Predict the structure.
Amino acid sequence: MTDSKLAILIPTYGRPEKVAKLIENIEKTTKTPHRIYVIAEGKDKPTIDLVTELSATLPVVLIKNKAPYTYVSAINWGYYCSTEPFVYCAADDVWFTKHWDAPVMDLLEQGYGFVGTKDDWVISKTQKHASHFAVSRKYIDEQGGVLDHKGVIYHPGYYHYQCDIETEQTAMVRNQFILAPSTVQHIHWMNSKREKDPTDTKENSHYTADLDLYKARRTSLNFEVYLYEGLVAGKVIPILPELKNAKRPLLSIIIASYNATKILNQTIDSLLANTYYPFELIFVDDNSSDPTTWQYIKNCNPAGIPVKRLQHKKQTFTDGVWNDGVAMATGDYIAILNNDILLSQNWDLHLIAALQTPDAWMANPYQTDDGFKEGGKLVPYGMHERAGGIDIRGTCYMMKREATDAIFPLPYQLVHWFGDYWIAEAIHKAHMKSVWVKDVVIHHFGSVSTILEEAEHKMIWWVIRGDCYAFSKLTGINTDYWVKVIESRLGIQK
């Protein structure tokens, strides 16, 4: 066990049968060289006897916790007693999925101090944070899990509640937080009736005390919680140097632009703040009428990021822009973005993770037009029915390199609309999938590229009407409904 890289901490109290099953689960699912540290209360003889027996043949270490026993004291004491460079904070009521540790270790070794794991049930239904997570020892020793204590993961004043929220938010403030595409199920929360948890006293006084401590610390430490507010404000959080220099798959990001320099600037800031993989940036300006747009694009050269630029001398609308951008791309994955969107943290990491299934060609985020928050919650809205029964989000989507050969170039007959419909049809015909990723939410400002006069509006709708007929001719798909909608906009009576 001298090569152990990962310490897995399991606080427990009075549940030896669960500990036995969990250790078996960890040994089946974890490839990283590891030790399992079981932190037991000193009087819990059945658990102590079990762990002592298992330690003879398995990488299991018994730690008797100092009194008084609480979840927080157990985690902090387990961290102190372990020696591995990376530490996962678990419990005796979690369940690890196969190979959960691979992306976690990858992110830790790339420089992140705090790597959360998803709980599919908890995050989707109740919580928006990681209940369990891994930390690097370097991060905890040098900075601490909280702002005013080095060398501990949790503030020692907590019993059981709120402690993980403060540690997670502290990592966010420091730009040390990332959510890994791994699942560690929290069985405790998945039961229809919450199981009695001996590691948590369930005393109201403890809950109230922890909540009061959290609120007091938020106020006294002037906590800046960097969530979606930072994105909306256009705040740029620097990419870690370790990630900039890492050998990772290259992402080509194509941004089609027409006017709207101010919004484009916010999009680029959001992109720089929230992109995990190394990328090249490809601008295709569709003959902007505002000269400041092309001037901004020519001068936009983020440090260390390759930038390619193309300016159309004649407006080609959406599909021609996409074709040109894809032709210039050299990345392993290709993302196409509008010039008027904001991205959530590590958007590309989650989209690329979704593309790892063999039959997935396209990955799409959820989207909201009303900002990232509504009543404090994300509000992704639905997928529209597209040709072939699948959909892409034309404002932002990512594809595998091999998919582009089957999809692009888009037919020259399509000008402004139906490019995404065409892509959906191509994916469907190839018996591949377009997938939706709940972990990625974009904000789309929507139709801000220019303020059009009535005549310009009519011109665009005439173009779209032509696209309807062209798409129908190319695919055999009936577009009568859209033709009627567009003709009503144009004032055509039949």
